[in-house]
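Supplementary Methods, section 5.1.

A reviewer requested that the exact input to the structure prediction be made available. We therefore reproduce it here, unchanged from the version used in the analyses.
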Amino acid sequence: MSEIQTNWAGNYTYGAAQWHYPKSVAEVQEVVRSCTKLRAVGSRHSFNGIADSVENIVSLKLCDQVLELDREQRTVTVQGGIRYGQLARVLQADGYALYNLASLPHISVAGACATATHGSGVGNGNLATAVRALEFVSASGDLVSLSRDQDAETFPGAVVGLGAPGVVTQMTLDIHPTFSVRQDVYENLPMDALLLHFDEIVSCAYSVSLFTDWRGATINQLWLKSKVMETDSSPAAPERFGATLATIPRHPLIEISAENCTQQLGAPGPWHERLPHFRMDFMPSAGEELQTEYIVPRQYAVDSLRALYEIRGQIAPLLQISEIRTVAADDLWMSPCYRQDCVALHFTWLKDWQGVRTLLPHVEAALEAFDARPHWGKLFTTPPARLQSLYPKLPDFQRLVQSYDPQGKFRNDFLDRLFL
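The structure derived from this sequence is encoded token-by-token as follows.
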């Protein structure tokens, strides 16, 4: 099918002339065998060309089913096109949960894992750390199966695969018994308090997010998502670290209604209705934004925040809101959190690419001393040589990609320019 398509935000137009929508693994294999250049796209929430191709794009949006829930092994196996919001409802109905979710439940499981997308929490790795096994169609059209238990030499390289080894058709994820979460929002956290008590603040709930517009000496909002017993109805403390408890629901952008946000004010609810910031049945934005994120080792958290504070005058005019979260270490080769606990510094910009593109080198320069790694699905200008130096397992990843795609069928300008 010939189409002109854009990503979710509308800032990127895909260059592929042909789009394919297979309904089965066999059809995916047929598409892959018939193409010389091909990329797979998920829910189109990337802001750059990571999923683009000069010729063909395949979307698995018609392959979005839960295939098996294994209670004995505590795993769920899903098709490659399923989104987290869909999966969460199925799991909750059976009394199970994922350990974490990103701020948006609208994103695809395969796409999120391929780009090391994450939620928050000092003990929570990125979403790909839940992957127990995966299947993908390699460049030859063959179906490849890898698992954490049986393929220790290659599995860590394929999970955050950036779409390079092949088209992911199936994933098996770890699951846990369902749990309840309450969400409390605090306002006007003094920046000095954050810098002085950073580790204590980000560790005071199961999942913690801080929002700031970098316009003053305060963090606008502190979102605490805490595990609770269903019978727990104790009120939240009126003050935390100098921030005061919000008495009405808040959107990260205070001038916007919180109606599309997940429920706050300490009301307990199931994990999938509290861990994301936004509700599955609402779109959180019309797409009038650009996004950037840098992940730095957590040991540099305070220093990196001070560095951003120094250039806040450059950041604020182009910014809608910035979010600060933590992510636990993992062993996935192309994850920014490979063997190091991290803090993620996220920026939601005004839709002004010319201004943002001019600003990003200054932000990256401020964070360079802290080994900042950009999120694979966001906008960045980090030079390829610098990026390559930050991934010690890159040579192994290059060899893994070569083994499954020797002719470069799944390669594109984004991958070639950065490291392939």
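The chain has three domains: 18-59, 66-177, 181-374. These observations are discussed further in the main text.
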